[in-house]
Every structure is written in structure tokens, then in C-alpha cells.
Amino acid sequence: MHVLLCPDSFKDALSAQDAADAMARGIQRALPDAHTHTCPLADGGEGSLEALIMATGAERQHADVQDALGRPAKATWGWLADERTAFIELAEASGLQELTKAERDARITTTYGVGELFAAALDKGAEKALLLLGGSATNDAGAGMLAALGARFLDADGRALAPGGAALAELATLDLSDLDPRLAKLQVEAAVDVDNPLLGERGASAVFGPQKGATPEVVAELDRALGHFADVSAKALGHDDREMAGAGAAGGMGFAARAFMGATLKPGIDMIMQQAGMAERLTKADLIITGEGKLDGQSLSGKTPIGVSRAGAAAGKPVVILAGSLGDGWQACYDEGVTAAFALADGPITLDDAVARTAELLSDRCESIARLWHAAR
After folding, report:
1. What is the pTM for the complete model shown?
2. Cross-strand partners of 5
3. Mean pLDDT throughout 66-93?
4. What is the pLDDT of residues 222-253, one digit of tens each?
5. Angle, CA 203 vertex, CA 325 and CA 291 arms, to 5°
6. How far is it, in rounded angstroms, from Cα 338 to Cα 200?
7. In the chain, which ranges are continuous DSSP H helix?
8. pLDDT at 193
9. What are phi and psi of 121, to 5 degrees?
10. How far apart are CA 328 and CA 136, in angstroms?
């Protein structure tokens, strides 16, 4: 029996790799002769860089960058030398998790450090880059990234704009003459798990701005500023990508990646499964077990367990989901190839206790699944 264990991380509890290892222990307790194969996954959000590195054996690279507030920071990126491919995670340089709540100000946070990561990858000889867009602290539509790569953002007096999305309201000239010419030959894929446009009530500022410190007044200010940036960009580039699905991802970084880098936007889980060689892994598996912290109706938008279930169904393989909790609408997941889904808790439990016991609970549930599978066979 071959069991493929491919969970996402369980937020605040276990990394994807630790979750997969806990699952494997439970399978082995029930079926010592079973062959367990771990493949930690992610959907473009938190933990995606680690999942890619673990799945592909990429080298860890480090770069000195600016964080979302312009402070010196260290960031990690991945490098597949044989494929000349860089893995760049936005959150490594401009992540929300690096800022305290008091520091979160969507008007001034910048993606400049992400541009510095791209520069490091280009210096290494990258021909392709996978850009992971989850966990952003920013709302500057990628302007900071472009500035780090040579673009100049000037006001009516020819002065450089301050960092951040709010300053884009004063943009008079977008000078791309010094934009790094190596970008023209760089193939970019951007991982997104949302389909929001850049602007409006479903746009970057309105939907994601509040979690980055934006009040309703600031949301309106940022939406106008990003709209002005989109106007100026359309004139400079000759095309307008503001309405594209995913343009609003990561504070508008989806817009910049597409408009200025020609990036292909695709679901993060699909990108990471492709890099991990999931198609081949699925052919060898008798049973697939995946999971993450919560499964609900929103999971259908591109979360890891649903991506795995769809791939499993296409391969004709059963997929079981283990989730910290089952929320509203989780039953809709059965229409996406899910064979069965279970919550981890073994009785009434507080959130703190559940987090502390996640590895134990994962092992126990996997042992039960393996015993049932063996009996059914």
C-alpha cells in the first residue's frame, strides 16, 4: 500500500512538513508495511516557499533587502540551478507577519524588497521566476518592486515619490527607461489564490486593505491612488490590466506582475503541485491524505486540499481531508473530488489545546483511516 501525504501547514501549529510527518507516524502505527510518501504543499500563501524548496530540493539563497517599512532585513529565496528558476516569496521581504499591529500602515508599506529579490535572482542568472504572493503587508500595486528594478516614479515637480500606495496619487511621470532590461527575457509565473481586480469594492484596497491597517477613509484614498497609477501605467504601456482576475492579489502586486513583467497568473496550488511532480506521485499512490487548519465553502477558491482533491479525482484516486475544523459549506467540497473529510478534534477542546495537540490528533486520525482502509480492502 502506498499512501501519499500532502498537507498544507496548520496555521500556528505545524508546518506542512511537520504535518506530513505526523500523518506518516499514524499510518505506520496501523500498517507498518505501508509505504508512506510525504509531499508538503501550499497554495501560494504562508509556507509556500518552504514547500517548494522541500518538494524540489532547491538551494536556499539569502539576500539583504528592505522590509515593508524600508528597514534592513534578510530574506530567503529558492534557486533551482539546473532549471535556472528562482522561487520568490513576497512575504519574505514585504510580509505582514513581520510588522506589529501598530506598524501596519497600508499607505506607506512598500514592495521594494521584492524587487531586490528579483535583482538577486537575475544576478544569479535566472531565466524563470515563480512569484508567491501571499502574506503581503503592502498596498502599492507593486510600485516599490518596480522602483527597486529601475523604474522612476516622479511627481509634477520631477521629484521621486515617497514609498507606498498613497503617494501614487501624486504620480505625474512613470519613467521606465532604466527598468532592468533583463526582465524582458525573464519568464514569470505569479501564484494567486484570489480573483479580485485591482480596484473597486472587490479590489485590493477594499478587500485586503483593512487587515493591513487601512480605515474606510484610507481604503478610499488608496483605491483612488491605485486607480491613478493604473491610468498612468496604461498610457506608458499601451495596455490596461486593472480588471484582470487576480490583479488585486497582494495589494495589487498581481497587477504589476502582469502589466510590467508579462507574468502568467495561476492558482498557487496548481503551480506548486506542478513543481512537486504531483502527477507522477499520484500515479503511484493508492490513497492520498491532505489537510489544513480549516475546511469550508471558501476552500473551493483555491486552497491546498481542494487542489489536491481535484488532481486526485482526475487520476482516479481517493482523497481524504483532515482539517482542524469544518466550517460553513464544507460539504460542497465533495463535488471537487473529496472522498471523505474529518475534523481532528476527538472531543470538546479549546483552540489552544487543539493547536498544541495538532500533531497527536493528525497521527490518531491517520491511524484510524489506515485501519479502516485495511479492513475495507
Report:
1. 0.86
2. 38, 289
3. 96
4. 999 999 999 999 999 999 999 999 999 999 99
5. 20
6. 35
7. 16-30, 48-56, 90-94, 112-124, 143-148, 204-208, 216-237, 249-261, 268-275, 278-284, 304-314, 351-356, 358-376
8. 75
9. -65, -40
10. 26
Detail the DSSP E strand segments found in 43-115: 59-66, 72-80, 85-89
As a dihedral over the C-alpha atoms of residue 59, residue 64, residue 69, residue 71, rounded to 10 degrees, the angle is 140
Domain coordinates in residue numbering, the chain: 2-41+277-376, 48-269
Domains 2-41+277-376 and 48-269 share a fold: no
What does pLDDT average to over the chain? 94
Average pLDDT over residues 37-64: 90
Please tell me what DSSP assigns to residue 136. B
The confidence score (pLDDT) of residue 37 equals: 96
> What is residue 349's predicted lDDT score, i.e. its pLDDT?
85
Most distant CA pair in the chain, distance: 76
CATH code given to domain 2-41+277-376: 3.40.50.10350
Confidence at residue 348, expressed as pLDDT on a 0 to 100 scale: 87
Q: Please give the helix or strand (H or E) that residue 343 lies within, else none.
A: strand 340-343
CA–CA distance, 187 with 237 (Å, rounded to integer): 18
Q: Round to whole Å and give the CA distance between 364 and 172.
A: 61
Cα–Cα distance measured from residue 252 to residue 16, given in angstroms and rounded to the nearest whole number: 27
Over residues 294-311, the pLDDT tens digits come to: 888 877 767 899 999 999
Nearest to 94 by CA among 64, 123, 70: 70
Is pLDDT above 90 for 154? Answer: yes
CATH of 48-269, one of 3.90.1510.10, 1.10.357.10, 3.40.50.2300, 3.40.190.10: 3.90.1510.10
Residues whose CB falls within 8 Å of the CB of residue 201, separated by 6 or more in sequence, listed in order: none
